[in-house]
Amino acid sequence: MERKNAWEAYDEAGLARVDAFARAYCDYLDHGKTERECVSTSVEAAQARGFADLDVLVREGGALKAGDRVYVNWMNKCFLLFVVGSHPLEEGMNILGAHIDSPRLDVKQNPLYEAGGLAYLDTHYYGGIKKYQWLAMPLALHGVIVRKDGTKVRVALGEADGDPVFCISDLLPHLGKDQMSKTAAGVIEGDRLDLIVGSRPLSGEEKEPVKAAVLGLLRQTYGVEEEDFLSAELEIVPAGRAREMGFDRSMILAYGHDDRVCAYPSMAAVLDYEGTPDYTLCCVLTDKEEIGSVGATGMGAMFFENAVSELYGLVKPYSELGVRRMLQNSRMLSSDVSAAFDPNFEEVFEKKNTAFLGRGVCFNKYTGSRGKSGSSDANPEYIAQLRRIMDDAQVAYQTSELGRVDAGGGGTIAYLCAKYGMNVIDSGVPVLSMHAPWEVVSKADLYEAYKGYCAFLRGAGPVDR
């Protein structure tokens, strides 16, 4: 059952739509290299489309009716969109869920130190990375510093023309005999992933003059002191914009495809929905997936259920049983990326059941590892409905699993939503070099994901049990 290449179906108008959507996505990536930046950009987009703030409506005692559009900004780390449908809420929602956190390096709370005439920021890596990939490349610093009085200083340094960048040094090959004999996992230890941020000493300063000079620049530029690092959230990410890739410009090379390449089309599909849907629509963009969906902003928290409850209470008199029925009867695409087949490493893929660049949006019936451990496993009745929806909308799609059975594996937020009893399946874009500082996707797969998400919002409904 080999799937056709999606590029073969596009006429000139179709190619123009693919490129236009890719440009908009690249702009989203360039303005959203952290969760906070993604949420800020998403809030602006929602407000421009007439979505109201759900929290404001709750505080003001407002009400919602079919066709109304609202958004939720949770802790500046998670973002939700709702469009109220004409059918009773208890018949469930059509949900698109993705995550907006990506592997990176985080700056520690007491990070700044001097060694060997260089100033460093101490870091702790976030998510599953190959640590050696982060050496000797330009890096940028993004995030927020919160002073004791609550005022915030936003930092985004290393992206604009004229900005300085940062890096983590690597050992020269002339002295790297022992390093080169190590396994890839041991080439560099996590404690050595420290960022070089300065080398010029402060004139007249005898004790740690380079560190003192950096602190002086921070004080002058941002108005912060060293202790303000205690309440800072600073992320180190690859410096540079998303770029078209290949002679034919058919691909996109960028940081953060996992999972913003699914988050953006999920959000766009709801923002672009016209009219009043039959079933309430929802897009949820969540945090902390890369470290297990934990904490107050991970999908394992209650923020999603709480937002749904608030929505329910603005549409009709609140009922806990009604909310539970609403969640249980929902349909969801857990919009997360899949590993694209890589001919350089074909031994870890099973070609009959893997995703290929350019063949469309990908459905993973299950993820997990080895014996499906940690997986959500979609029901065939639900998959049959999705097949019909995709075929009717002429969406290019493929099915996949994450590598050979005993090669490894991974998980998504699907199982955390399946706990409500709703039908869930993973559906996203295939990615080359997943979790590397620079990842690769096909423009065609990105666009087919958007088409597929739009078709799902229009066509999904109750599933036979």
Structure report:
The protein has 465 residues and is of the alpha/beta class. The protein has helices spanning 12-31, 35-48, 54-59, 177-180, 209-222, 257-271, 303-315, 320-328, 380-392, 414-418, 443-459; strands at residues 52-53, 69-74, 78-83, 93-99, 104-115, 118-126, 139-146, 152-157, 195-198, 232-238, 243-245, 251-254, 280-286, 331-334, 338-339, 361-364, 368-369, 397-399, 409-410, 423-428, 430-431, 439-442. It folds into two domains: 6-102 and 255-459, Zn peptidases (Aminopeptidase), CATH 3.40.630; 104-238, Aminopeptidase i, Domain 2 (Roll), CATH 2.30.250.10. It contains eleven helices and 22 strands.
Describe, in short, the structure shown.
The chain has 465 residues and is of the alpha/beta class. It has helices at 12-31, 35-48, 54-59, 177-180, 209-222, 257-271, 303-315, 320-328, 380-392, 414-418, 443-459, and strands at residues 52-53, 69-74, 78-83, 93-99, 104-115, 118-126, 139-146, 152-157, 195-198, 232-238, 243-245, 251-254, 280-286, 331-334, 338-339, 361-364, 368-369, 397-399, 409-410, 423-428, 430-431, 439-442.
DSSP strand tally: 22
Low-confidence stretches: none
CATH superfamily of the largest domain: Zn peptidases
Tell me the CATH architecture of the largest domain.
3-Layer(aba) Sandwich
C-alpha termini separation: 27 Å
CATH top level of the largest domain is Alpha Beta
Oligomeric status of the shown chains?
Answer: single chain
Give the spatial strand order of the biggest sheet: 1-2-3-13-4-14-20-16-18
Overall morphology: globular
The major pleated sheet works out as: 9 strands, mixed
Name the average pLDDT.
96
- What is the number of helical segments per DSSP (H or I, 4+ residues)? 11
Radius of gyration: 23 Å
| Share of residues in strands | 15-25%
Structural class: alpha/beta
